[in-house]
Amino acid sequence: MSVKPPPITPNAQPLADVLGRDLALVVGYKVLAPRGLELEVSFLGKLATWVLYAALCFVVVTEEGTTWPLVLVWIGGALAVVAAVQYVVRARGALAEP
Length: 98
Hints:
Blueprint: H1 13-32, H2 43-61, H3 68-96
């Protein structure tokens, strides 16, 4: 008898996006900090985090099958991806400066 892991559902994608963004931020910090470059947290990044935390709470406290908390998860995930792009653009600009 073998045990199969559960399939990855489409609802896991925002979580993967957020974890990928956070990993990129940690790696980016390790690259930029020794060069004396610092990037400040953006409002969009803070908003994405807040929306994701709120969505997680709503997923936990609502009945299974409730759709609107999952919509919030996807909105938060999209905001997180946009914030990650914003950080990459800022980092590239900082590295391009003499």
